[in-house]
Amino acid sequence: MSAILQLAFGVVAGAALAVVPLWADGYQLSLGISLLNYAVLATAWALFSGPTRYVSLATSAFFGIGAYTVAVLGEVLPWPLVLLIAGAIGVVVALLVGLSTLRFSGVYFVIFTFGLSELIRQVVIWYEVNFTRVLGRYVFVPITQEQIYWQLLALVAIVLIAGWFIQRSRLGFALRIIGDDETVAAHTGVNMTAAKLTLFAVSALFITVTGAVLAPRWTYIEPSIAFNQIMAFQVLIMALLGGAERLYGPLLGVIPLTLLFEYLIGNFPNSYSILLGLSFMLIVYGVPNGIVGLIESAWRRWNSEDKSSGVVRRLAALVRRPAA
Fold first, then answer.
1. Is residue 301 a part of any domain in this protein?
2. What is the mean pLDDT of the chain?
3. Residue 104: inside a domain, yes or no?
4. 231 vs 234: CA distance, rounded Å
5. Handedness of CA 114, 118, 119, 120 (dihedral sign)
């Protein structure tokens, strides 16, 4: 019954969001695209980093791969084939990187994934300067903003459905054991390399395709735009604010932070980076367990108080009851 209710709610919400481009103006549609973009990225990031607790900063690397794939192939191949190739490249890179990095943990994995994004960015710059003789590329793909919105909405639905199935699968169970204690996971027979590598590739697939879908939104792409490290930190803090260990948690962080970013960049463009850093610090300090953690904690307290009051009422009734 719970699954049926979740499915019904998702269908209703998806149908309501699908009609937004039919009445929204330019700014509202742009804001909707930003919300859906971060919803896919944060949820895909949490698919892997939530259960394993491996903090990945490679989001901008895979996003940039998808964007540059469209810049190179968007004019010569059909759009579905371009998305397929972008996703395949992202998965291959994730598998190659994962085989050499997922044996690391903690700060070593964080540093490696951060360096990966910078490495790919520098390789792209080197190739463009030495072979194409230009630093950026124009993107001419006949796709409207409404079509970008609908494709991102479809990606949100797909990543949520995929996450729902993964959480209830043996793979999801194995990853939760790995996140709790890798030593216990190894002793219980979990193939840690295969489990981590599989979900890292799935996460990279969604992030890469999102970069490809969003690329036509820009007329011109260069490495500093496609491989923007600030985006990796934005996605990270959104997932952490909402609660990376729950499937719907990142969505609770995407909405308020996307609106906050829009307000800051619109009203304080010169101080945006400073205010963004302060916001990150306040969120990590003030909401360490995310919005989901606050909700679950409040729910447990309410249940505890309700049970306690029920016990008190029953004791009071026994006291007032006249002796036989």
1. no
2. 85
3. yes
4. 5
5. positive
What band does 116 get if pLDDT is binned at 50, 70 and 90? confident
Domain assignment present for 193: yes
Residues 242-263: tens digit of each pLDDT: 888 888 889 989 998 999 888 8
Could you tell me the residue range of the domain that residue 42 belongs to?
Answer: 2-228
Whether residue 265 contacts residue 272, with contact meaning beta carbons closer than 8 Å, is answered with yes
Q: Please state the separation of Cα 181 from the chain's center in Å.
A: 24
Which residues of the chain form beta strands (DSSP E)? 137-138, 220-221
Task: Name the amino acid, one letter, at 301.
Answer: R
DSSP characters for 75-141? TTS-HHHHHHHHHHHHHHHHHHHHHHHTT--THHHHHHHHHHHHHHHHHHHHHIIIIIS-S-EE---
- pLDDT, position 187: 76
Q: How many structural domains comprise the chain? A: 1
- Partners of 137 in the β-ladder: 221
